[in-house]
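Q: Here's a chain of 64 amino acids. Please give me its 3D structure as tokens.
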Amino acid sequence: MTDEGSKLSKLIKKAIDDLELTTTEYQEILQQAHADGAIDRDEEILLKQLQQMIADGTVTRVPG
């Protein structure tokens, strides 16, 4: 995993650990995913996992 992917992984792990994703955290995740100008395969997998967890209610989007 690239350094950028590692940073993205840490941001997503935080959201998963507390089962909530604030608007600010979501924006940070998107900014990190696009930080190097491309989304690589590892980053894409992480983002899809997060989206699935949001869709199935495991992680809740909250204001903030």
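Q: Can you summarize the key feature?
A: The chain has three helices and two strands.
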